Amino acid sequence: MASVRAKEEQAEWIAHLLDDAVHLPHTRIRFGLDPIIGLVPIVGDVAATIAGSFVLVAARQLGVPTGLLLRMAYYQSVNGLLGSVPLFGDLFSFTYKSNAKNAALLVRRVKRGEAGVCPLEAPSLSLADLGLILLLTAPVWTAVALLSYWFWSRNLTLLSILF
């Protein structure tokens, strides 16, 4: 079993990588791989959405209540679906930072814990836990892929908009 802090760090690392790993020198501007890989038609937005799902997996493993997990899935859905829209979606992903929001919710919830006590070890995920995560995220992955494909099939990509 992994420690709770190790799971929190995994979620924070994923969020950092996707939302604020790159710092523009001499500015306060930070962004991550999410808007960058989102520039790749169809595959990029789906990959970023799937990567963000791992924060939800860590949350479920750490016992985040279903209501909070639904809120986290909502943030991820908004980022994935709006991120699929060429140009606007990339700018949206640049500022929305759903993965950082989800990691912050996770850490805040675990620190509060049951009766103020944080467990030392994270329990293993059950099949029911994995099923719940798939139930929440797989439709979003599919919708992101279909929406991205719709834009692609109509030649509405970032390149076609700019040039």
UniProtKB/TrEMBL annotation:
The chain crosses the membrane at residues 36-59, 130-152. PANTHER family: MEMBRANE PROTEINS (PTHR35519), PH DOMAIN PROTEIN (PTHR35519:SF2). The lineage of its organism: Bacteria, Pseudomonadati, Nitrospirota, Nitrospiria, Nitrospirales. Keywords: Membrane, Transmembrane, Transmembrane helix. It comes from Nitrospira tepida. It comes from the Bacteria. This is DUF4112 domain-containing protein. InterPro entries: DUF4112 (IPR025187). Pfam families: DUF4112.
